[in-house]
Specification:
Helices cover 18% and strands 26% of the residues. By secondary structure, the chain is α+β, with helices and mostly antiparallel strands.
C-alpha cells in the first residue's frame, strides 16, 4: 500500500488490487455496515489512554485522540459474535491461514471524534498480495479499510489495516521494547500488555495468553495495534510532530494522520 495513501470520503485512492482470487470477498465494496448507534463517552477513552501510558490530564472532550475512535466499533467485553474487523478474518480464513498479524496501521482523519458523537462503521477489502516468504513464515498480505462515520453519515476517519497471514516457521521474530510515557525503557509485562489490550477492547488471545502467542510463532504476548498507535500519538503530543504522525489537515485540528509500521514486535518480558 502506498505510504502516502489518503482516503477521501471513506475510500482509499485508486490502487493495484493485487491478486484476484474467487475465494475472497468483493474488493472495494462496503461490508459489515453498522449504522451510527454507539455514543462516544469519555470514560473508556480515559481507560485506554491511561493503560497505554498516556497523560489523561491532557485529554479534551471536544478533540479526542485519533487512536481512540475505533473503541466504539469493538465490544467492551470478549464476545465471539462481536469480532471487529470481520472482513479481515474472512480473508484470513478464505486464504487458509490460521495466523495473521498487522504489519501496518494507517489512520486518516477527516474530523476528530468528541464526546457525544454517535458512531457507525463499515469495512472494505482494498487489495491482496501474492504469496511470499515473510519474517514469520510463508504467507501473503492484504489491506482492509475500517471506515468510521458520524450520525450524519460523514466520515470521521478511515483506518487501513495491512495484515500478513502466515504459516509459522521455526524462526522467532526480533522483539523491541518501546518507550513508555515518562520512561526511557518500558518494562512491559504480560499483565500490563493484556490490560492495555483490554482497555483498547482488543480480545485476540495473542495479546493475553502466552500459550496462544507461542502457538502463533510469536515470542510471547504482544502489544495490540491500538496500543502501539496510542503510544505513537502520545509521543507526538509530548514532543511535537513525531515520526508517523501528521497535523493540520481535516476538520477540528490536531493530529490528522497516523502511520504505524510494525517492523518489530513489542512483547512481554515477564509475567507481572
Amino acid at each position: 500500500m502506498p505510504s502516502d495513501a489518503r482516503p477521501v470520503d471513506g475510500r482509499s485512492p485508486s490502487r493495484d488490487h493485487g491478486v484476484v482470487d474467487s475465494r475472497l470477498p468483493s474488493i472495494d465494496e462496503a461490508h459489515y455496515r453498522v449504522a451510527p448507534t454507539t455514543v462516544v463517552e469519555l470514560g473508556p477513552v480515559v481507560g485506554m489512554w491511561e493503560a497505554t501510558g498516556g497523560d489523561v490530564s491532557a485529554l479534551r472532550v471536544d478533540r479526542l485522540p485519533i487512536s481512540s475512535t475505533s473503541l466504539w466499533s469493538r465490544p467492551a467485553v470478549p464476545d465471539p459474535l462481536g469480532v471487529t474487523l470481520r472482513l479481515h478474518f474472512d480473508v484470513k480464513a478464505a486464504l487458509g491461514f490460521e495466523h495473521a498479524v498487522i504489519s501496518r496501521y494507517l489512520i486518516d482523519v477527516q474530523r476528530r471524534s468528541r464526546v457525544g458523537d454517535v458512531i457507525g462503521h463499515h469495512q472494505v477489502l482494498r487489495c491482496v498480495g501474492p504469496e511470499r516468504m515473510t519474517a514469520l513464515g510463508w504467507g501473503r498480505s492484504w489491506t482492509v479499510d475500517h471506515v468510521l462515520i458520524d450520525a450524519d453519515g460523514q466520515v470521521l476517519q478511515t483506518e487501513a489495516f495491512t495484515a500478513v497471514g502466515y504459516h509459522p516457521s521455526m524462526g522467532v521474530p526480533r522483539g523491541a521494547r518501546l518507550p513508555q510515557s515518562g520512561s526511557d525503557e518500558a518494562q512491559w509485562t504480560i499483565r500490563s500488555l493484556s490490560r492495555a489490550a483490554a482497555a483498547c477492547r482488543v480480545w485476540s488471545p495473542v495479546h493475553h495468553d502466552p500459550g496462544a502467542a507461542r502457538r502463533s510463532g510469536l515470542p510471547g504476548v504482544i502489544a495490540c495495534t491500538q496500543h502501539l498507535a496510542a503510544m505513537l500519538e502520545q509521543d507526538a503530543l509530548r514532543n511535537g510532530n513525531g515520526t508517523g504522525v501528521d497535523r493540520g489537515r481535516g476538520r477540528g485540528g490536531g493530529a490528522t494522520r497516523l502511520d504505524l509500521r510494525m517492523r518489530r514486535t513489542l512483547f512481554a518480558t515477564r509475567a507481572t
